[in-house]
Amino acid sequence: MAKMILTAVFTVLLSILFGCNTVETGNENQKPSPPASTATVDAAEPAFIKKTYTYKTVDDVHIKADVYRPDDTKLRPVVVWLHGGALVMGSRQYVPKNIQQLCQKEGFVLVSLDYRLAPEVKLPAIIADIRDAFGWINQKGPKLYYADTNKIVVTGGSAGGYLTMMTGVCVEPPPAALVAYYGYGDVDGNWYTQPSAYYLENEPLWSKDEVYQAVGGKVLTGTTNQTTPTSRQRSNYYHYLRQHGLWTKEVTGFDPETERNNITPYCPVRNISFRYPPIMMLHGTDDNDVPYEKSAEMAKELERHNVPNELITIPGAGHGLQGGNKKRVDEAHSRALAFIKKNLK
User: Fold this and answer.
1) For site-directed labelling of 65, which of 48, 91, 148, 185 has its Cα 20 to 30 A away?
2) Tens of pLDDT along 126-144?
3) What CATH number does residue 275 fall under?
4) Do residues 121 and 115 lie in contact, with contact meaning Cβ atoms separated by under 8 Å?
5) What is the percentage of the chain residues whose pLDDT exceeds 70?
């Protein structure tokens, strides 16, 4: 019973973390339908529509992107959303409402990306998907959905925040700017390679046999389909990895003790140069999943390379900026949206 209650609570937290404004995926050949949004838009403005595309196919796996945009042919700046979920769960269908509303109000193209999930594939394949997605945006975007690819801002939360940071080192040309919500600049620090006291004390002690039932099957690009393991089921697997300090080895495919050189290319904090895009980071000081220090370390390294950056610290806030002072959290979100707008306008 305790496990059932805890997994139910985690499902609610997932909905908070990812924005969980779930949008049904459309067929690529169907007329796109409007996204779920409460944004108020002038009646004279074109409708904000969504269409789903396959940006990459690997064997029989179709990796997709949802593209939201005003229903016209005007070239428009692009916001790319990268979902979180520890790289083992989550979906492009979860786009925070405030990001959707900003894009609708300002007339930006919003591209929400899926990518293959670990552990069925490893981190190098995930980063290859992200790199290929931006190649697709740059090559196909201008004609396919009228994207102004000279103006791209990337944003995401948690693992999506990590991937956002990675686009600054793995995408050519680099995006105009980045917004990383409670992200991390390394994947092999002690916080991931050592057992987590928080997960040992606050989660059931999951058994290997139990959690591995949700992984190891076919390659997934999302965990919302009813025929595949759900985010809730795969979250138990994630908790098991954190309890045993196994996340890095399972997700990257490399041993953090003996193969650090193989992991370094996937740690943005160790790959910053003068070409790195301007970035805003948001992080709560009481984050028990991704330590606040991960963003602080990024800020320090960015300063060392004279890269424009801003770290918005929310005292008392946990993962997903939950539990912090509401006024300060709202202000942080507003500043992030203003940063996106500034770098696209």
Assistant:
1) 185
2) 999 999 999 999 999 999 9
3) 3.40.50.1820
4) no
5) 85
